[in-house]
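Priority: low. Protein: N-formylglutamate amidohydrolase. Input follows.
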Amino acid sequence: MQTITPYDIIEPKVQKIPILVSVPHCGTNFPTNIKNDFKSTLIQSPDDTDWFVDKLYEFVLELGITIIRAKFSRWVIDLNRDPESKPLYDDGRIITSLTPTTTFLGESIYVKEFPDTEEIENRKKLYYWPYYKQIDTILEELEQQFGKVLLFDAHSIRQYVPSIYDDEFPDLVLGDNNEQSANPELIYAALNSLSNSRYSLQHNDPFKGGHITRYFGRPSQNRHALQLEMTKVNYMDDDEIKYDDNRAKKMQQVLTQMFISLRDALDKI
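Result:
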């Protein structure tokens, strides 16, 4: 059985501040023992990956922010889903499960059989819960030092995914589980900063934060969580294949100001 740490921790380059950035969907690896169960043509470039999001957010290391990123593809196990595959939304949209069997567009990703209950439990043990436990460990360390902490879950998505949303997605969607996962001052700071950019912005619609945001966001315990979803064309080319340095730099400027606003707001609450 393959035993490998399912995440990377990237420490900041300057003095730490109480913010952790999580990138759960940037992984592209597949465990050797189950790799042949997937269609080889698909896993060469798993389409539902949040491509280059970890690269996009590398600038936060200069702000004192730690990064945790996943190594394995969300097709192995989706770290932002409920561990029992309970739906995150009740509006009829099609959302892939904890262990997806299809792409977002409905194409089967397996050669023959889907993972059974035993295999799903094994993947949770090896890849899912270790990611959560490591987040918890980092948050506890930051809480001990600063008394409060913010988890920022970073995501991206194709500009158009008809199985989820009828129209093109807005550039940015801030999610906080309907204002339950973070202090209102933090939510306002993020929204106010992002709204001053050229990018279109929506709040909790069509995404209000996945399982990570809802699981870790406990404002009453000084533990806050936000999710930011962005369309890939904001930092990739029009075909959503290649990283676009020019677009990425423009987005990083906006995100930098947002994190500065969050840092200041976190210091005051």
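The two ends are 46 Å apart (CA to CA). The chain is about 30% helix and 15% strand.
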